[in-house]
Write a structure and sequence with these properties.
Blueprint: H1 19-34, H2 39-58, H3 62-66, E1 74-75, E2 80-83, E3 89-92, H4 95-105, H5 122-135, H6 145-158, H7 163-170, H8 175-179, H9 186-206, E4 209-220, E5 224-231, E6 236-242, H10 243-249, E7 256-261, E8 267-270, E9 280-291, E10 295-302, E11 307-313, H11 314-320, E12 327-332, E13 338-340
Antiparallel strand pairs: 1-2, 2-3, 4-5, 4-7, 5-6, 7-13, 8-12, 9-10, 9-12, 10-11
Helix pairs in contact: 1-2, 2-6, 6-7, 7-9
Length: 342
């Protein structure tokens, strides 16, 4: 399929966020929601968190979000949100995001509100969005529903989704004008968007830990290559790959690459100043711990705001006394880092 993102640029007057800013905003909303200390606060913040996810990933208008019936319109089983107000349509969303929405809605704290969880005061919701802008260092005027919605459309276009399909996704009224030049059946449009969402999910969730940045250094010895990647938030990630992979990926200093690390390859250690052979070591704070009988999934926030997920044994988690707020060092070896280019 033709790459429709070639030559695409955003008009200067279109206020939008970069993918990195969107991720920072998502982390800020999630941290704020999880910091709710009482059921009342957590329920109130949970409603805002759900509204943010629907604007961020479904590109819904604020009015469309507030009109949703969470029992009838959010279909996690089929992976869509059904918009029945204004530009009626079914909007596809990434499966992990819809699962998060469904799990949040299933919480007992929402039982008495089901059907009207998203019936929020518009002014109150906007104020909460502006407040979160401070948490991630963004201008208050930038982190608003309209800018976030535009940003989702821009992500789709840059991901290779054709303009008419993006307009249909967003429910834009001038879709027919664009279709004079490009036409896609409903089934084809669904397939195109699903292809984008599948690629997005693979990049963001399959390895659980994803870092996008610029290659700052490459060293080779004939067989192997050491590649240093610096993210926009200032984190440096070091990977060791084969020289053959370096050539096949066409990696060069100044280029953009994506580093991924699987959760089982992440090591956690108590406190700081840890001596280790791991090239990648960062100070962090535990934000979430979820236990099974034999394992623990630990989410830690690094000093510059990135979140890293580690999958360790239950015994190790108990020995480290891991709990939200505890300081840890997050480590992974350079050989554990997988590099890709988009």
């Amino acid at each position: 399929m033709r790459d429709f993102s070639a030559g695409f640029s955003v008009p200067a007057e279109t206020r939008h966020l970069t993918s990195e800013q969107l991720e920072a905003a998502t982390r800020a909303f999630l941290a704020w929601y999880e910091a709710g200390k009482t059921p009342v606060y957590r329920r109130s913040r949970g409603r805002i968190w759900l509204a943010f996810l629907l604007i961020r990933y479904a590109g819904l208008r604020l009015g469309e979000v507030l009109a949703l019936d969470d029992r009838r319109d959010i279909d996690a089983q089929n992976g869509v949100v059904r918009v029945r107000e204004g530009a009626t349509r079914s909007v596809q969303m990434p499966e992990p995001v819809l699962r998060e929405i469904a799990n949040t809605l299933d919480s007992p704290m929402f039982y008495s509100l089901r059907g009207g969880v998203l019936r929020l005061d518009e002014g109150y919701l906007r104020r909460k969005f502006y407040e979160r802008a401070k948490d991630c260092g963004l201008p208050a005027t930038l982190l608003n529903p309209r800018a976030i919605r535009h940003s989702r459309g821009i992500e789709l276009i840059r991901g290779g989704v054709p303009m008419p399909v993006v307009l249909a996704f967003l429910g834009q009224s001038h879709l027919k004008l664009s279709n004079r030049y490009m036409e896609f059946s409903d089934d084809t449009a669904v397939q195109i968007v699903q292809t984008f969402l599948n690629r997005e999910v693979r990049m963001k969730t399959s390895a659980r830990n994803t870092f996008v940045g610029t290659v700052t250094r490459i060293r080779q010895d004939g067989l192997l290559a050491e590649v240093a990647l610096k993210t926009l938030s200032g984190l440096t990630v070091t990977a060791i790959i084969t020289s053959e992979s370096l050539v096949s990926l066409a990696l060069a200093e100044g280029g953009v690459a994506v580093a991924t690390v699987k959760a089982p390859w992440v090591i956690l250690a108590e406190g700081g100043d840890i001596k280790s052979s791991a090239r990648n070591a960062y100070a962090g704070t535990v934000r979430r711990v979820e236990f099974s009988e034999i394992a623990a999934e630990v989410t830690a926030e690094l000093y510059e705001g990135s979140r890293v997920c580690a999958l360790i044994t239950r015994e190790s988690a108990d020995a480290l006394e891991l709990a939200p707020g505890r300081s840890v060092t997050v480590l992974f070896k350079a050989f554990s880092v997988v590099l890709n280019v988009e």
